[in-house]
Amino acid sequence: MMKGTEPMAETDKDIRWVQRFENFCRAFGELELAIEIDTPSRVERAGLIQFYEMSFELAWKIMKDYLEEEGYEIQSPRAAIKQAFQSGLIADGESWLKALKDRNLTVHTYDEATAMEVERRIRTTYFPNLTELHTTFQGMIQK
């Protein structure tokens, strides 16, 4: 289960990325539970993908909010990912861009074979990326 989700100091709650991080933690927690299901049914797989979509959406918006606070102008998820990589917030910009592509694919289409392939990538790459982002921002809040 998630570690380090203590309540934030009152001053932190006024910072946009910190507010959004609270929502991310909830979605990420649901994704974490879905990941624990080793052989999901079709419905469970669809839920896992939905929790991934929510977590990913909040993740890029956290990056955007944080980077804007740092003085960058961010206009899109792609721009947020690229700048987050350049700024050292994320380690693997390429896999985040692939995650964006998959998020866009799963939002607009549903095909069981595609869903199974996206599930594999969520488990092997995207969930670890989201976990790393969670750890990074949790560390910033605890400072």
Question: Short description, anyone?
Answer:
Helices cover 74% and strands 0% of the residues.
Helix-strand topology string: HHHHH
CATH-scheme architecture: Up-down Bundle
Average pLDDT taken over every residue: 89
Rg to the nearest angstrom?
15 Å
Q: Tell me, what is the CATH class? A: Mainly Alpha
Tell me, briefly, the overall form. globular
Query: With helices defined by DSSP (H or I, 4 residues minimum), what is the helix count?
Result: 5
* Percent strand: under 5%
Indicate the CATH topology. Answer: Four Helix Bundle (Hemerythrin (Met), subunit A)
Stretches where pLDDT falls below 50 for ≥5 residues? 1-10
Map the helices and strands.
Blueprint: H1 16-35, H2 42-69, H3 77-87, H4 93-108, H5 112-142
List keywords for this structure.
Four Helix Bundle (Hemerythrin (Met), subunit A); disordered N terminus; 0% strand; HepT; globular; 74% helix; Nucleotidyltransferase; 143 residues; mainly alpha; 5 helices
Can you walk me through this structure?
With 143 residues, the chain is mainly alpha-helical. It is built from five helices and no strands. The chain has helices spanning 16-35, 42-69, 77-87, 93-108, 112-142. The relative contact order is 0.15. This is Nucleotidyltransferase.
